[in-house]
Design a protein that fits this description.
globular, 178 residues
């Protein structure tokens, strides 16, 4: 049997983003898989631009990656009590592609943030953003990584048994949906 294809989408574009680190750790704890991180550094959505030039190739590539993946893991920072604009923009663009790559797709949602709530509000809003796409979003265990800049060791692995235990359980549940 081939390894499942797992796609990560980080709501942060920063080189050392803790949300990207969280996705990498989730993929490690998921176990044997073909893991790929999507690049959502898209132009801002503008209907006039879409009408004149169509869907950008970078957007279509991510939509194709979602469609080809056996499961998707999303991680968002929390900006002003919501997900990042980068992630919302990506969702808007992807919704403009043919078909619906999210439909029925197993999805795990998580968040990493500087605050002590770990992005809980952003994650709730992100889950609402996903409703029109009809994915199979896992309900838990919820991962809200607080004080995220201090949550990883020098190898990029989570510090602390609680987060590792919950993230492992979430990844086992995601694997079970494939």
């Amino acid at each position: 049997m081939t390894s499942p294809k797992l796609l990560g989408i980080s709501g942060s574009l920063r080189r050392e983003a803790t949300n990207t680190k969280l996705l990498t750790e989730a993929a490690r704890l998921f176990g044997n898989s073909e893991y790929e991180l999507a690049d959502i550094n898209f132009p801002l959505y503008d209907g006039d631009d879409e009408a004149s030039t169509g869907v950008p190739a970078a957007v279509q590539k991510v939509a194709d990656q979602i469609a080809a993946a056996d499961a998707v893991i999303l991680s968002t920072p929390e900006y002003n009590s919501g997900p990042s604009g980068v992630l919302k923009n990506a969702l808007d663009w992807i919704s403009r592609t043919e078909g619906n790559p999210w439909n029925g797709k197993p999805v795990a949602v998580m968040s990493a943030a500087a605050g002590r709530a770990g992005g809980v509000r952003a994650q709730m809003v992100l889950r609402g953003f996903m409703v029109p796409f009809r994915p199979m979003i896992l309900q838990g265990p919820e991962i809200h990584l607080a004080d995220s800049s201090n949550a990883f060791d020098e190898n990029g692995q989570l510090i602390g048994e609680m987060y590792t235990k919950d993230l492992t359980a979430l990844m086992q549940s995601l694997r079970g949906l494939i």
